[in-house]
Amino acid sequence: MEVPFFPTLFSCVRNLVVKQPLFPVLEEWLVNHPKIHEFSWNNGKTPGSSQRFLTLTVLSYISFTFILSQVSRPSLARPVLKSISAVHNIFLVILSFIMALGCLVSIFSQVPNFKTLVCFPKRTSPSGPLFFWGYIFYLSKIVEFMDTLLIILGKSMKRLSFLHVYHHSMVVVMSYVCVDSAQSSFSMVLVTNCAVHVVMYAYYLMCTLGVHPKWKKMVTDCQLVQFWASFLIMAMLVFYHFTGSGCSGILSWCFNAAFIVSLLFLFSDFHAKNYSTKVKPKYA
């Protein structure tokens, strides 16, 4: 059985994109490069792939965040802090854009149809371009821990909320689980998340440079739309899983579904509290 509308839309968009003159160039660099095309995730061998590394990384982040938020700290000169923040935000804008583009080009190059995009066949191994970008995505979430350090160094403790710490720590776990279990549909979530992060870190960069755009609320709105889109994707995954021969990574899907539900509630609460009262603290 097929989900109506989406397979036809995917086929039309794919056929249109691959005919563009720039596509072969992007495909050569973002899909067929040997380091990308021949990538294989080997648990315990690929850097950062062991469960011990994941556990120590997340626990260290939570511990250091708690400790640094409680002890007295020397203040960084404001120009130095602004410079570090600007470099950090520029890096994540560029990286998020490259990850979204790389994964999107890989989808159009490697995935034959919409059903395969949503539902990887059982026993799919985490190798090839899609999982390379999933691996880079996982590592990028560790880089994003720098967000928290910048908040602490800037002594903006009101911005160090439960949502911020929970989101930053658990999204690393989610990303790891997606790649390690070869979870179906993760590439769609990667593209939407990276697209939102391009907007979000661009906003933070502008604020760092002294420009305060009026579209901050739109950043949170984009996050909420992303979560609802994730629910739609997950619903289609379940449909294909139970109407076909099964999908890869269905158990990890259960974990990630629960995580996304929790984020939806937390971000919705943030949205209601901040934009109904006109208070504008920076969120996670």
Instruction: Give the total of beta strands.
Output: 0
Gap between N and C termini, in Å?
40 Å
Mean pLDDT: 92
What is the tally of helical segments?
A: 12
* Contiguous uncertain segments of 5+ residues: 278-284
The helix-and-strand class reads mainly alpha
Radius of gyration: 20 Å
- Strand coverage percent: under 5%
What would the principal axes of the Cα set say about the shape? Answer: globular
What is the helix fraction of residues, given as a range? over 70%
Largest sheet: none
Count of the separate structural domains = 1
- What series of H and E elements makes up the topology? HHHHHHHHHHHH
InterPro entries: ELO_CS, ELO_fam
Protein name: Pathoproteinsis-related thaumatin superfamily protein, putative isoform 1
Transmembrane segments: 51-69, 90-111, 131-153, 160-179, 185-204, 224-243, 249-268
Membrane topology: Multi-pass membrane protein
Main traits of this protein?
single chain, 284 residues, mainly alpha, 71% helix, 0% strand, disordered C terminus, fatty acid elongase activity, fatty acid metabolism, ELO_fam, lipid biosynthesis
